[in-house]
Amino acid sequence: MKNPLLEKSKVVCPICGTIRSKPIGEHIRTEHGEQAFIQAVLDAKRAGVNDAEIGERFGITFRQLEHIVTKAYGMNLSVLSRPKRIRSWAPPSFQLETTTVWSFKQRGNWATHDGRYRGNWSPYIPRNLILRYTQPGDLVLDPFVGGGTTAVEAKLLGRKCIARDINPACVELTLENLRFSPPHTLFSESAVYEPEVSVGDARHLHGIADNSVDLICAHPPYASIISYTSSIDGDLSQLSVPEFLREMGAVAAECYRVLKPGRKCAVLIGDTRQRKHIVPIGFETVGVFLRAGFRLSEMVIKRQHNCKTTGFWCERSVKHNFLLLAHEYLPIFEKPVSGMVPEANAVIPSPVAVRIQPPAKSVASPETTTVWVFPPEELEGLTSANIAQRYGGHLIGHVPNRSTTVTLEDYTREVQVLVADVLRTSQPGEFIVIQARDFRAGKYVLPVAKAVVDALGQNPHLWIKEIVITAPNDSSAEPIEDNLRIVHQYLLVYEVVQ
Length: 498
Hints:
29% of the residues lie in helices and 24% in strands. By secondary structure, the chain is α/β, with parallel strands linked by helices. It has 3 domains: 4-73, no CATH class; 101-334, Rossmann fold (3-Layer(aba) Sandwich), CATH 3.40.50.150; 346-496, no CATH class.
């Protein structure tokens, strides 16, 4: 006789023990009540059942599961079990990043770092920032401390740290993660500084003096992408995109106030998608900080590795012509030493519009995420082949060996003129793909792609579909210099609309 417990469509009710068909959520709610249902979901989560199985078992969405966990624990946790004991104090064979594409296949789990707090950044990011831009004993500020990743790194690296979060539960989690005593062998040049951790609002950095901080490491919640609290007033993750950007203006102003002139402020931020089109929160946030008085010192692309690129998602990506978001931005700003510094010009290749030709043959494995990384010798060819296979219409690219020294405004005007010409012969549903890359002008970076997106944002005949990052996969060691080597480019994909 067939054992119903072995049938994947069957599950045992954790409360009454009856065998039921999946999902059992309605049965638990009806027979045992809402609180019993919530407790059953949390018990499954604590037992290590993965999120997809919990959703299938109880008939809830991922967002509903997040809400249950966040309400129960006061913060959004991906894992409810306690972290393992410390096995190492530093990442093995660590080297500073030297280019503008940062890619960490393993999140990093030395010291007390773990992935419990959903959405926290890899400890490799603050480690790179702290070692590149500070000295032992310098003061690091994290105004969105979350699970304490930056505070832990500051303590490990012998830097002072002020860590704040609007969520008291995050403060408690950070304090828990800071309960360690690193071996003295880690500190040959400095003492151990215990971070100052407290509840606080990044928009109002009370108690922090003007021009007192050496480095700011900020990873704000992205508007409405991940909910970090269930009911705390001032939680930026609960806001719409326009509200989020408005409040980030207050954050930028406070960061500018407390940062020392000539020092750096790094902000990790990503994009989102609405109605199958990209919403460029990243570029918008860069604009917020530039308007606060900062200058852009570096534009780093953080590559994500948790995107499923095969099977079901690969098929959907090709069938419905969308890409899985696999990039975040890490703009590194500088507070000018003497107010606003005049913007320098850069040598930027001239733009030209060409018709995208159908591919001679289909790409065997088309790209399914927003980051395309190819061998250097195949970068141009494979990029062109993927563009041709996915997007009909026009390409506005760079003229080889024809560059001019222009202002950013002049360059964007040239692009606007070309786009206007292309639109005259384009049909709704076609695409216009614009190649762009950032350029260094003096000590700062000109965010060319952001400027193009800003310039075309009011065009009623264009709707931005994708922002793709392309880069070579050359992993050869680069010498450590004052500036990162710019290796990434952008493909700004616009859909032509009525």
